[in-house]
Protein 1
Amino acid sequence: MTHAGRVDVAVVGAGLAGLVAALSAASEGCRVTLIEATARPGGNARIAAGVFIASDSLAALRAYVPDGDPALQALFVAGYPDAMAFLEGQGVPLGTLERAPGSRVLRPMGLGQPGRRDAFVDGLVERVRKAGVRIRVNSPVRSIEPAGGGYCVRFSAAGDVCASRVVMATGGFAASPDLLAEFMGPGAAHLRRRSLDGAAGDGLRLARSLGAALAGDMAAYYGHTMADCPLEVDQWQPLTPYFARLGILVDRRGRRFTDESASFLEEANPQAATRAGIDRYWMIVDERIRTGDAVEVGIAQRADWLQAACAAGVPLVVADSLAGLAAQLAADGVDGDALIAEVEGFNAAVRAGRGSALAMPRTAAATPLERAPFYAMRAVAGITATCGGIAVDTDCRVLAPDRQPIPGLYAAGVDAGGVFGRTYAGFLSWCAVSGRQAGLSAARAAPRT
Ligand SMILES: Cc1cc2nc3c(=O)[nH]c(=O)nc-3n(C[C@H](O)[C@H](O)[C@H](O)COP(=O)(O)OP(=O)(O)OC[C@H]3O[C@@H](n4cnc5c(N)ncnc54)[C@H](O)[C@@H]3O)c2cc1C
């Protein structure tokens, strides 16, 4: 075994959180090694829609994500401007600040423009290298052991690195069927992954082996309603029906199972399916919703979506009447009569302004489904990122069950659990904020080599 030597800070995982953590630690004068399992740094940021979402106040964030940790949420809101300024200072492409409904602020790094996402990530990787960080690719970390007042990080049969401080940034456990089943129960078996396979829960396992506590709702995740058909990675984002919250979602019984409008990015909808153990469900919209004539601005992709979905072979049914739609869905195993009754009941309630009084309430975006053609897509719950994870404090120090920091251990990005819950307000922004915090905290605490 070769020893890569001793460094001040080792960062495990080179997604956005790890890149920002490594760069932040290096900018404080530390010797930093960044260890990445795959051949290419960048992680999920390369395939994301690329919008740095945040809330413009803690009150707004608390109102939208009431089950998140208030202290981490305060860090998220307060740290966002600094994290964005830090990224801007690296010369990577960032759009301007926009305001969106729900007191949200957005900074795109290239919505719908994959080239710009790569330019952003490649630019950041370049800055990390120029800052003197050694990036070890193709080096999945297998174990981390306390050694000499720090840690020995073993990343392959051929190498290890000893570090005074270690930052875990491996992206959560969305790609670990075992951990998903452990924390989410039987409904997890029906999940379709909508993120890269790197997020296999290594950070969680490694941190647990060092005594870390877990934090947040371990069954909560950020995800989307996803077409029930094979999709290529580069189809995940363009084929996401972000507008699903405007239509209705029904199960095989033809019944709605969630308040579709409860989350801005419809991220609560797939979770409702998972919690109820639903394997398949159907998104139903009408022409007004598809074209965007009906309600709400700010949700992209409605008009383009149908064309893209048809081209991709998405299981889509189109009909000129509700009865026609129900008949086609009956052939797919849906109770057609119950579906018609459900839509009629829904339409009557929302026309009367009584959506909230429905047995399954509809609290917002209440538009009747009444303009032909009608569309239905067979869907599955897609998981992008887990919301529960390693317990951290506001310095991103990893915490033991007694809430005391574990010396020298930090976590950032999706690995750091608890900032979001059943609703979410931007993982890219959380990666930037927590990555920066973890990198700075680790650097400032590390005895220099
Ligand atoms: C289609 C899609 C669209 C999205 N759109 C948005 C959006 O617009 N806005 C937003 O805020 N969020 C969005 N997200 C979510 C966001 O992109 C991710 O949550 C975020 O990029 C995660 O960053 P991370 O650094 O925490 O983890 P990751 O990007 O998952 O990086 C973790 C890295 O750690 C590596 N790793 C794992 N295990 C090990 C190990 N044992 N040793 C070494 N390395 C390891 C992995 O290979 C990976 O490179 C989207 C995600 C997807 C998939």
Protein 2
Amino acid sequence: MENKYKHIFFDLDRTLWHFEANSHKVLSNIYNHFNLEKNIKNPDVFIEKYKEINENLWTLYREDKVSKEELRGKRFTDTLAHFKVSDSMLGEEMGDYYVHHSPRQTELFPNTIKILDYLKDKYQLHIITNGFEEVQHIKLSESKIADYFQEVILSERVGVKKPHPFIFKKAMKLAKAKSNNSLMIGDDWYADIYGASRVGMDSIYFNPEKIKHNNKIDKEIACLSELQEFL
Ligand SMILES: [Mg+2]
């Protein structure tokens, strides 16, 4: 079926690269590597608390209230503090371990390679990501999907994060794309879907957990393989 699209912009984390699975693996390794069982009996309790603290800090990072450098160690130092361990040195070491190992994990969402193979000859594929610059390229190459993408647009390079219109405009300029022949695919309604709508770009909301919502969307999928139906 013919459609108007020439360019497809993908989000990376939680859309192609399986952030939760990869992160969980590294956090389990951290629990063992740093002998946390002395102070925290259950690794799952540690991981749950870390995720909660990390998420709150990411909200502050998105609002530019916490710097990237602060975020890295602080999310672990704060988690340790919750379990009555006051050790910011350890927190920093855990932060370094996480930042080194996390992007080297390679789990992708089901059918990622299959759908990229299907799309690559019909469209130009690109990435727009709010993730940290030095790790996003590692994720792409380690998980063996780097070669599918022409342009990788990083918020840190551009200076603003999704959903700021400027990052989408910059992405289209680099890709020589126009909003009327571009499509954004991402899991974050605010950053990806609302962001795309602000520059007049169509979008597909990736909602693998099928979470109920009342957000305004063009289209929604729960599995990447569904893209074949209309692309
Ligand atoms: Mg995402």
Protein 3
Amino acid sequence: MRIAIAGGGLGGLTLARILHRHGIDAVVYEREAGRSARSQGGMLDLHPESGQQALTEAGLTGRFRSEARPEGEEHRILDPAGRTLVHHKPQPGSFSGRPEIDRRRLRDLLLDSLPGDAVAWQHRLVAATRRPDGGFGLTFDGGQRADCDILVGADGARSVVRSLLTDAGLSYVATLVELSIGDADRRHPELAELVGPGNLWCVGVNQILAAQRLGDGTIRVGVSLRAKEVDLDTYRSKRALLDLFAGWDPSLTALIEAGDGAPTPRRIEAMPIGTRWANQPGITLIGDAAHLMPPVGEGANQAMLDAAELAAELADNPADPDSAIRTYEAAMFRRIHPIAEMSARVQAMMLSPTAADEIVRFFAPQSAEPAPADR
Ligand SMILES: Cc1cc2nc3c(=O)[nH]c(=O)nc-3n(C[C@H](O)[C@H](O)[C@H](O)COP(=O)(O)OP(=O)(O)OC[C@H]3O[C@@H](n4cnc5c(N)ncnc54)[C@H](O)[C@@H]3O)c2cc1C
């Protein structure tokens, strides 16, 4: 059984690792040139029932605990005047909640757990064609070709593999503008103090100024705005961003002023809630390729759980991988539907006029819903 996984993000690598533990080989085709080709972004909190569960199946709990930062769970929520609305401090050194880990470290941890030849770097999939005798012929940017019996699309938000299964489109749900402040303790101690060891959200009307501290002392700053048909280039200037926060306390807008380089805007997109497809032999999707949702803290966790569940089905039923895929898809569709609904609801709430009140309620101890994403 030749398994090809398109995409070496958290989902694809977790799948390759768990399959490898079961003695099943898979090749991960990743478009990037190598593990350090691109910055991997900020921190993630891994949930016990999804991301952490997948790492247990991957046999990587020990390494996760040595790399994770439970203190990163600390978060503060402020209003535009800089008043603290919520301040949550985790139990020191406790792994019982949702410990944070830098994405880069998590990806490295997965990459280190795979045989050296498991990832084919610089292989951007551009087409997959069903072969008459079963399986797929794959074509990569640059002309390389490969064949496989099973194709798993783990190729993220703008998946190429997705189009073989569904014509579900993406909708634009928010704008995120990011900045980064390197070596914050030394260069901007007052901002390091403001952000603390974890996350800070400054919540206004229809907009959020957020910051998080990474393990290497960098502060990542994210400005979340409602989706609006404007030229994203407008947000490439700090001046334009600062204008959006006119009247906010200068100790907060200092996070924008201190950014190294120009801000980087991007659209945040989502697939329709309840997207599913008719099962087809030899092909499936995991992670954002299967269910891109607004980023409120579930996407990576669910991508890793998809990987663990698909790997378990394939390992349990190696003689009938199509039946394994059918079982995986049915369970994944059921699991994701309420999570996608919740993610859309939280996203809309966070960028609403009453966000501050609702977020305070959200973080009240009896709250049943997960915390908003670490932006
Ligand atoms: C700002 C922000 C904050 C977030 N915060 C959180 C959070 O706190 N918690 C959480 O759980 N989730 C969070 N998410 C969501 C999370 O990032 C994604 O859901 C998760 O990364 C999905 O994993 P994946 O493996 O499916 O896709 P990705 O991580 O996107 O990986 C896809 C991989 O496929 C590769 N690729 C793409 N196209 C091709 C191709 N054609 N051929 C070969 N390779 C290809 C890419 O280079 C990439 O390596 C956040 C998202 C955003 C945008």
Protein 4
Amino acid sequence: MPTHDPTAPARIFVAGATGVLGRRVVDRLVAGGHAVAGLSRSDANAAWLNAHGAEPRSGDLFDAAAMRALTADCDTILHLATAIPTKPRTSVADWAANDRIRRDGTRALVDAAVRNGCRRLVAQSVTFVYGDRGGAWVDEDTPAAGDLSPVVRSAVDLETIVRSAAADRGLPGAVLRCGMFYAHDSAQTRDMLAAIRKGFLPIVGSGTAHWNIVHADDAADAVCRAATAPSLASGEVLNICDDEPVMVRDLVGFAARALGGRTPRRVPAWLARLLLGRHAVDVLLASSRCRNARAKAALGWQPRYATYREGYGAVIARWRGDEGAERA
Ligand SMILES: NC(=O)c1ccc[n+]([C@@H]2O[C@H](COP(=O)([O-])OP(=O)(O)OC[C@H]3O[C@@H](n4cnc5c(N)ncnc54)[C@H](OP(=O)(O)O)[C@@H]3O)[C@@H](O)[C@H]2O)c1
């Protein structure tokens, strides 16, 4: 098993280097003087990596031998790859690629990290694993819900794979449970804001479910800190979300006012399930309030956008500017 020189600058392999989260992580790591290798399947994304100071590496995430070879000179592996469907109505089949990335992809990267003697592996999970707690506060000691939607169960499996390798194979692995991302360049955020402005985005049910959210810039900051922190407990699990879980009706109402949109209509949950698919709606109706104190303490992390008011306010301002720029 190779051992990496702890005094040498880190070489960090990023799977998912070209997504909403990964692009931000790559830019921060490169700016911090780290050598970054990014996995990518397309020429366009490889060109983006090159242009941003990272080395593109091409390979199949599900091929364990290929992942071992591609990461042989790396001391740190970040698993940020996802394939979250962005179309409005989804079935379980639409989530299959994402589930496979979380299960087979995590196994391949964990195996590579163990065999290559990496000093750390950080994997992206989701705060949805807490399921519906009726709006109760939760922290990392709260067990994952037992009745999770199948599209979230794969995140629990990802966590189990990383934590088992930490416990049984000596892998210094950490899991970041990220809240719902938002950013000016997130397809989900743009679609949501466009629908809110047109008055098309309904509030499902009472709108009193609490969401845990995080600006993608803040999530990237947490990932980089987890990747490069001098020490981090092996098997650590950290909630990466802002300081104020928000009720859906407050978030949508805030955005509607900021965008000059109509007051959002309400639709019953049964109708939303019919229109959007059961699993996506169940995930969006699940209510929990996540504490982020452990991440702050372990990583010295503080979200720059502490609540939806600052964060969505900034995104909406940028989005409107982008729109103006596009029209000009
Ligand atoms: N916690 C959250 O709320 C959360 C988490 C993730 C995503 N999202 C949302 O979901 C939407 C889509 O996310 P995105 O724009 O980041 O997606 P994306 O552009 O599809 O990027 C996903 C990343 O994963 C990689 N990837 C996907 N499938 C792969 C595979 N089979 N093998 C290797 N790498 C693979 C992609 O690499 P390639 O360069 O090879 O394409 C890319 O780097 C966005 O709106 C985002 O905000 C939300």
